Amino acid sequence: MAGRKMSIGHELQHTFVVREEDVAAFAGETVHAVCSTFALAREVEWAGRLFVLEMKMEDEEGIGTQLSIEHKAPAFVGEMVTIYACLSALFENNVTCTFKAFVGERLLASG
Length: 111
Hints:
Elements: E1 11-17, E2 23-26, E3 29-35, H1 37-55, E4 70-71, E5 80-91, E6 94-103, E7 106-110
Antiparallel strand pairs: 1-5, 2-3, 4-7, 5-6, 6-7
C-alpha cells in the first residue's frame, strides 16, 4: 500500500488531556502540578508521527530524531491541550514539522 502524498503547509492536529502522571515530578516528588515538558514532548512527537503514519509505505517505519520545544505557559491536570502540527519540510525520507500547542486560546508551547 502506497503512503499518502502531502505537501508543505499541510496541517494535522492532536489533542490530549493532561493527567496526574503527566505533571513535573522527579524521584516521586512533584515539582509543579502542571504538564511537564517531558509529557508535552511525548505528545508533540506523536503529533509529528501522525504525518509519518499517513505518508509511509506499509513496510516502512519512522524514527523521531529531534524535538525543539519552547514551553511558554502551564497546562493543568484535566485541561485539554491541542497541538497543531504543520509539515514544514520534506527531503527524501525526512519529515520536518513545526507545531503550536494551546489550551483554549492560551499558547502553551511552540517548536
